[in-house]
Amino acid sequence: MIKLDIVNRVADRTGVPKMKAEQAVDALFHSMKEALARGERIELRGFGVFVVKPRKRGVGRNPRTGEEVAIPSGMTIRFKPGKELQAHGFEAEDDNSDLHDTAAPEAAPRLPEF
């Protein structure tokens, strides 16, 4: 599914023109991107939770050459499916125990602009 499919479904289900549906979808995605860039947690009840987590630095390998490559530390976005998605067979990762922490992150590092 691509963004155009989402726009078409929103337009079909709500009866609004596709142009308005596209504006609504764009506004939603823009708001989500901004919140994640600020390090905020996004909770969509019945769907799931997006959370920004630190990623440790490490060493990886180039699969073609076998050469070691340094992987810098940074931030990553994790998703934990909600109960309704889990009922459809989507499982949550085991290492996301802090997804239910409702405290605001302390001085979260800035993520790159989208």
- How do the helices and strands follow one another from N- to C-terminus? HHEEEEEH
Largest sheet: 3 strands, antiparallel
Gyration radius (Cα, Å) is 18 Å
Give the termini distance in whole angstroms. 20 Å
Assembly type of the shown chains?
A: single chain
The largest beta-sheet arranges its strands as: 1-2-5
Low-confidence stretches: 100-108
* CATH homologous superfamily classification of the largest domain: IHF-like DNA-binding proteins
> What do we call the CATH topology of the largest domain?
HU Protein, Chain A
Output mean pLDDT.
85
Give the helix proportion (percent range).
25-40%
Would you report the number of β strands?
Answer: 5
% residues in beta strands? 15-25%
The 3D shape can be described as elongated
- Supply the helix-strand structural class: alpha+beta
CATH architecture of the largest domain: Irregular
Short description:
The protein is of the alpha+beta class and 114 residues long. 32% of the residues lie in helices and 24% in strands.
Protein architecture, described:
By secondary structure, the protein is of the alpha+beta class. The model is unreliable at 100-108 (pLDDT under 50). It has helices at residues 3-14, 18-37, 83-87, and strands at residues 42-44, 48-55, 58-61, 68-71, 74-81. Strand 1 and strand 2 (48-55) form a beta hairpin. The protein starts with a helix and ends in a 27-residue tail after the last helix. Helix 1 packs across helix 2 (18-37).
